[in-house]
Amino acid sequence: MGRERPIGIARGNVSGDRNNKGQFVAGWRGGPGRQKGYRAKLAEKATQLLFEDFEQYGEETIRRVREQKPERYLEEVLKLAPKQTEKLESPFSDLTDVELMQLEELLAGLRAKTVREIEAHNGAIEPEPQKSEPIAVSKKD
After folding, report:
1. pLDDT tens per residue, range 99-113
2. Is residue 89 a part of any domain in this protein?
């Protein structure tokens, strides 16, 4: 059997726009194509029709989907949730493992001190005496 030809191209029927293989010839500028704004008009009309349908049946449809297909309902609700659009960079990404361990130790100490202060303020424990440097006192002879 011979090779199949594109639809509309019969053997020996070559138009000025195509070669004998059915391909567009070099330099062909194309036809008028779709009218400008047609796709936008189509999308606008479809959106309007969906909006009108939703106003009439939307609440009932949502209720039925929620009751009969809860997994589908949840799937669609999640699609409406805003998505994170930018990757957040960690402020700790430049720290080494040693620096991270030091930071963790520092935070643990601060956390413990804060808890002790809160407990002391609430009367749960006696406050720790403040550490201070000894004061030099001069003696008089």
Report:
1. 999 999 999 999 999
2. no
